[in-house]
Prior knowledge:
The protein has 10 helices and 11 strands. It has helices spanning about 5-10, 45-55, 95-110, 135-140, 160-175, 190-205, 205-215, 265-275, 285-290, 350-360, and strands spanning about 20-25, 30, 60-65, 70-75, 90, 225, 260-265, 310, 315-320, 325-330, 335-340.
Amino acid sequence: MKKRVLIALAIMSIMGMMCSCQTGTAQNSVVSQSGVEVSQTSESDEKKIDEVMAGYDFSGFMAVVKNGECIYAKDFNQALDGQELTSDTVFRIGSDTKQFTAAGIMLLQQKGRLSVKDTLDKYFPEYSYGREITIHDLLDMHSGLDDYSNHFGDLGLTDNAEKNKENILKYMLEAEPINEPKEVFTYNNGNYFLLATIIEKVSGMAFEEYLTENIFKPLGMDSTSLYKDYEKDGAVIAKPLHPTGAEDYFNMPGVTFGSGDVMSSAGDLMKWLKVFEGGSILSDESIEAMTASYSNEDDMYEYGYGWFISSEGIYHGGNLSEYAAMIFTSPKDKNSIILLSNQNAALLSNISTSVRYEIF
């Protein structure tokens, strides 16, 4: 496996984680914490993490799991209204959505409903290049397709989710590929848009309903859903530090379908990461498939199914105009770092790397 971990983590920040628990705010005050119990960890670990965080201008919530126990959970909110962020507070997690979309595909394969070897003409018979590209090529970012998110201004986007999805799908199926399939890794939100569409076609369920019934509910991820409207969702949502409004492309309904529309909390994400330790909703074969690297010698990154791969573990970042996320986990060591920010922050990968090398 190629040793490009630090470079890949830096790039990921651009592409766009039992006793009574306490958390400190950015001002180091103590507030009660619900949802997650923090173990009585050594003062040295907490001090090391605090020292790392003191070097960064971070706004959001951070959780660290070591040897299977949460050892650190803190609120670093810088918003002027002083909203208290907890392990139950919901953030948009951007491209960390992709691991859930990939898991949805694997669950359908486990049930024999599809195969990652299926070619796209099975699901999109009108697509000219459908016989050349497989579901696997979408999952591992080797489809060669153009990315619709590079062409937002040409898609006729509105405030109607179904119309936006219709326009995006039309673009994806009419655009000429930019590379030969399987030739080179190209990070592409459109791949996961198509995967979410396939999930709907095969399951006969709306994408959100499918994820809720097959992933979120079984794992007790009660705060996790798809992005619709901050004001209408019942969960306590972190207020963005720098709101951009509905006119922002990434805030338009349906635009991040399958690639960036999951909203979750640190507490729920801890439950999710345990899946990769085995014995849960994903079979060992599915976990192995999701966390293997399919990169070739010409690729800059190691990528699996919805995860970047390194020798230390698996990770992914997510960036939207108002939010950012970085999730790292080492299933074999039961170590994880979850960073959820209420601002678009290019430094989350640096924080994750720094904490990892200090604590694990």
